[in-house]
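Hi,

I'm pasting everything inline rather than attaching a file, because the server keeps stripping attachments. The sequence lines come first, and each chain or strand is labelled.
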Amino acid sequence: MSEIIRAFLLGGCICIIGQILIDFTKITPARIMVIFVVTGVVLGIFGLYQPLIDWGGAGATVPLLGFGNVLAKGVMKEVDETGLLGVFTGGVKAAAAGITAAITFGYIMAIISKPRIKR
Amino acid sequence: MAKRLGSQTIVLDKQPVILSGAGIVGKKEGDGPLARYFDDVVDDEYVGEKTFEAAESRILRDTYIKALEKSGKSAKDINIILSGDLLNQCTAASYAFRDVDIPYLGLFGACSTMSESLAIAAMLIDSGSVDYAVCAASSHFCSAERQFRYPLEFGSQRTPTAQWTVTGAGAVILGKEGQGPRITCITPGKIIDEGIKDANNMGAAMAPAAFDTIRSHLIDTGRNVDDFDMILTGDLGKFGSTMLRDLLKRNNIDLKDKHKDCGLLIFDIEKQGVDCGGSGCGCSAVVLSTYILNLFMQGTIKRLLFVATGALLSPTRIQQGETIPGIAHAVLIEA
Amino acid sequence: MLSIRQRGVEALKRQLSKHEYQKLVDEKAPGSHYVRNIIAAFITGGAICSVGQIIMMVLKNFGADKETTASATSIIMVFIGAFLTGINIYDEIGKFGGAGASVPITGFSNSIVSPAMEFKKEGHVMGVGAKMFLIAGPVLVYGIFASVVAGLFYFIWKQVM
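And the predicted assembly:
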């Protein structure tokens, strides 16, 4: 149970940062997403993100910062294993599950449902 | 013949008559304060069509048919249709009228289209080149969202200065003779760009244009605010209206209680969650063609300055960092 | 007539410069409901991450290893985001939660599924296919590019050290 509470607290706090950026700087949601992923890569490459994951679990991995961290970790692992080639293969390899799932489910949903007006 | 007054204003001689008007809206608008004035409320945002764009054309065409019915005229009497909308290349209007077999002039004035079409039609009738004309405009929340903002199902928050594009169309039949309020005077507006970049704050972008046109009209005609029963702007919304009052006040023009805005009339902005109010070509078109014509019929108002406002932006130019030019055309309608 | 003209000329003197008008707009524009938005983002983002945590714990209970758990969790979260978008609910969550809905990976999923649904009418290739990454495309472009830059630095650092 304490793990869930920690995930809630950490995930919530990361989202607050995003909300503050949206409300105070007029940065659009699409840009926020880009900023979060790139920041995640930067934090990941310096090993600064792992402590957050150790403490907050999904609270750190589910936000897009975590996605950036996955890209960074993946590229480092591949560079360790295959050298220079890993620079090109590591990121996408590690993020493959998320990207492929998004394309697959995105396509299926586009086929079976249609947009409705906001009430 | 019409004659020019001052630098911008045209006084009409024959004074074309608004024979009838009709407005059809979507469900949200149908739940708003003006519900009982609309000719029809469509519950389904697709209106039985496959796409939102087709739905908008459908609403526009049905509105035209309704207005024609109410005028007692037939399609054969109509010499020209002047219409426009917000979609790229004005396709809502051109697809709405592709089967009606009447000469058509497509207009783009963004949300000011209704007053633009009234102004041009009135001049055409005044010149004797046209006997009866249709003036119409439409917008659709869903087709506008996908063109100007995000996909409908994208989970984003609206900013507090955002406005809600009205789903609906308004049409009036304008004629050389008959019963109804008359268009007596026109002040076409200049493009005014005061450097607003926020596409979610169109009220602020359009307010200087409305200010400029209203002021020019007052100067050209020598009238003051008290001479009107109502000064009706198109879709400045709550914030744009505040800015308009402020700008006019700086020029010692006090709107008092004469100013109304179609974007604030069509929705209950507190209850309906539309932030700063309604917008879109359909907004001013619907309110004028239904509620306002009703006020004229009942004799509640006798002289109205209709100033539909438009933000002449495109997503492309905004992404390129451009500012938003505004426009407003004034049409004086008298009982 | 002349007096009207004169008044006109007088009034045409600009009362506000562009810069002054923009300042006035910024001053007077209604602000966001900051406190409400931050609380809503915290609750929404926290709740979504809690769901992720529960999924992780369940997967672990089934004996999945660390890497499988991480991948499977993101696949399931992406599915949840896609599903809620497909049944026209995720936009409501986004309206309530703001960044709380767009920052988690479910929001990434929503940003892919929503244009895919929206542009189905323009066909499967130029509609669904081309527009699917309308919003999420930049996330992948800059995320992957950042990973390449990061990887390159790491590679060089390893050679040097």
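The CA atoms of residues 41 and 68 of chain A lie 4 Å apart.

If the labels don't parse on your end, tell me and I'll reformat.
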